[in-house]
Amino acid sequence: MRPTLPHGPAFIFLDSIQIDRDRKKALACYDWKPDHPLIRDHFPGHPIVPAALLIESAAQAAGSLWMDLMIKENQPFVLVAQVERFRFFRPVCPPERVTVEVQMEGAFQHAASFAVVLRAQETTVARGKILLARGYLPP
């Protein structure tokens, strides 16, 4: 299924997502292409996906999962509140498909924490934790 996110199409870094509500888990993927406008100049001739964009794709997967689990009308936006202990083991070099696995570890009134693992070619490229918070964007 397509992720449900408040982002515009140029800033969605998930092609698809599968949500397991019972296990509070999601598996998403995104095919990074060498001509993607945000990475084609990072670095010309040898594109590498910036770490911040990999974290963003993980946050989008976690946000999609949390929003799906909340199932409320007039849901607020889900925003990144904290990025913890992220480690990167190797660069992602397009064209590469990255899978993002997120597991909700805890939910509170206005926040939720998620363990994240990103893989490319069945190899772990990054892992860490993300804390999301419910909030509203200014008008």
From TrEMBL:
Annotated ApeI dehydratase-like domain residues: 21-128
Assigned EC number: 4.2.1.-
Keyword Lyase: yes
Molecular-function GO terms, alphabetical: lyase activity
Protein keywords: Lyase
Pfam families given in the database record: ApeI-like
InterPro entries, per the entry: ApeI-like, FabA_FabZ, HotDog_dom_sf
PANTHER family linked to this entry: 3-HYDROXYACYL-[ACYL-CARRIER-PROTEIN] DEHYDRATASE
The protein's name: (3R)-hydroxymyristoyl-(Acyl carrier protein) dehydratase
Naturally occurring in which organism (per UniProt): Candidatus Methylacidithermus pantelleriae
